[in-house]
Design a protein that fits this description.
Elements (H helix, E strand, L loop, with lengths): L11 H28 L1 H9 L4 H31 L1
Helix pairs in contact: 1-2, 1-3
């Protein structure tokens, strides 16, 4: 019977992998929000009428959402990778 090894998720390498996934998600969220603002006139007009902070709040909301989603996806990938080895 094999000894039970700890998950790669708890190690420093696992945390670095999770931070990498979070940063990739944040970058994708920022790119998506800026593309959406620049390419869709309806969104730009809506944000223009929303006040001075509306575009920043809109971008930060998408960045946070994408970062959380990418981090959770990273957890699934690391755990699946851990099961295979």
């Amino acid at each position: 019977m094999r000894a039970k090894k700890s998950s790669d998720l708890i190690s420093p390498t696992g945390l670095i992998k999770l931070m990498t996934h979070a940063m990739m998600g944040a970058a994708l969220g920022l790119a998506f929000s800026l593309t959406l603002i620049l390419s869709n006139p309806a969104v730009a007009k809506l944000l223009d009428h929303g006040g001075s902070q509306a575009a920043i709040i809109f971008a930060l909301t998408l960045v946070t959402t994408f970062a959380i989603g990418a981090t959770l996806t990273g957890v699934v990938f690391i755990l699946a990778e851990d099961k295979q080895s």
